[in-house]
Write a structure and sequence with these properties.
The protein is an alpha/beta fold. It folds into 2 domains: 78 residues, Helicase, Ruva Protein, domain 3, CATH 1.10.8; 182 residues, 3-Layer(aba) Sandwich (Phosphatidylinositol Transfer Protein Sec14p). It is built from 13 helices and 5 strands. It has a 5-stranded mixed beta sheet. Helix 4 runs antiparallel to helix 9. The protein is globular.
Length: 276
């Protein structure tokens, strides 16, 4: 089972209503409710206690809400089978070397990991829109393996510097609905905030494509900062950010994140529902 260090267990108790003494009972109740709902039996999923605990934490141990989340997760996987596959770092090294997507792994002061996506690093002459979504899914799958991240959730920084017409064209209805589904509806991960930086003039028109798909709760978590790093630091401490966002770290280094991907690759691919 996904055990937590004592200080993180206390954070989970306060923020997620997690009680280790009651966790076995909640897991059993969840399994019973899923059986009643006809959801078990997905042979391509590794549905052990650790799997279900991730979902319970994402819904603060509310079993009924967790059942709905598991249902949406399974439906998402059936709807987008090519996207919902782990992208092994060993087979996608070229993408990772671009540093288009990386994740900070600082754990000081209970900080949530930060996904940094730099739009101008996406070479759309070599990758497709749904390839980008698959990489995002892989980030979520990898982060969800960490019990502390299950508690802290994730921040997303979307850096739009250098956005061009090719990038705008990739924002299709399918792309929008899939990303939103992963972020707010179908994946067992708490979204702490979506932070848009370096957006160009006319960003409002791009955001308008997403906004109708966003629940009010997620809309409140979208923050458009431009280059106002003080505003960004109100949500994410400067200590965990690279200097290009007014932080105290050097440039974006995806080395630690790449090592994390490589470390979990064998275990992820051992589950039959993961890809390559």
């Amino acid at each position: 089972m996904h055990h937590l260090p004592p200080e993180w267990a206390e954070k989970a108790r306060l923020e997620l209503n997690e009680d280790p003494l009651q966790t076995p009972a909640r897991l059993e109740e969840l399994r019973q409710r899923l059986q009643e709902a006809g959801l078990p039996g997905h042979g391509d999923l590794c549905m052990d206690d650790a799997f279900y605990l991730t979902f319970l934490r994402a819904r603060k141990f509310d079993v009924e809400k967790t059942v709905k989340l598991v249902r949406r997760y399974c439906e998402m996987r059936r709807r987008y089978p090519d996207v919902c596959r782990f992208a092994a770092a060993s087979k996608h090294r070229r993408f990772h070397e671009t540093r288009a997507v990386t994740v900070t792994l600082d754990r000081s002061h209970f900080e949530a990991p930060v996904i940094i996506a730099k739009i101008d690093y996406f070479d759309l002459s070599h990758i497709t829109t749904m390839y980008v979504v698959r990489q995002y899914y892989t980030v979520l799958e990898t982060c969800a393996l960490d019990p502390m991240t299950q508690v802290s959730g994730l921040h997303l920084i979307l850096d739009l510097q250098g956005i061009n017409l090719k990038h705008v064209r990739m924002i299709t209805p399918t792309f929008v609905s899939t990303v939103v589904s992963l972020t707010q509806e179908s994946y067992p991960m708490r979204c702490r905030g979506v932070h848009v930086v370096n957006q160009p003039f006319g960003f409002e028109a791009i955001y308008a494509l997403f906004k109708p798909f966003l629940a009010e709760k997620l809309r409140r978590k979208v923050h458009v900062h431009g280059s106002d790093w003080r505003g960004l630091h109100e949500h994410i401490p400067a200590a965990v950010l690279p200097h290009l966002y007014g932080g105290r770290r050097q440039g974006i280094d995806n080395g630690p994140w790449l090592k994390r991907l490589e470390a979990v690759e064998e275990a992820m691919l051992a589950c039959p529902h993961h890809g390559c």
